[in-house]
Amino acid sequence: MTRILLLLLLLGGRTPAAYTQTHAEAQIQYLIRAVAESGCEFDRNGERYPADKAAEHLELKYARGKRYADSPEAFIEHLASNSSWTGEPYLMICGAEVTPAGEWLMTKLEAIAPR
Hints:
This protein is α+β, with helices and mostly antiparallel strands and 115 residues long. The protein has one domain (21-112). It has helices at residues 2-10, 16-36, 51-65, 72-80, 101-112; strands spanning 41-44, 47-50, 91-94, 97-100.
């Protein structure tokens, strides 16, 4: 019992599940900011968008589809890798380098949360 109380105190009164969800949300927001600050273009359904517009799009998808994104990995897989309308993969275009958005985002996630 005392271990549980100590753990709750360390988590600021939040339950471990609430802490985990807050941590996941912070990581997802980090990924969206990484897109916004990337300076890359974002290819969505064959049309290119600047990084800030790409981030706005991902933020909207996240706001509407949070139930599919209970972790940053789920966010990448279910919301940020391809178009929910066409199924076409999103692409990050950074100079001459073209990378699938899901792969680009996983690289960013692994930089802050190594496995």
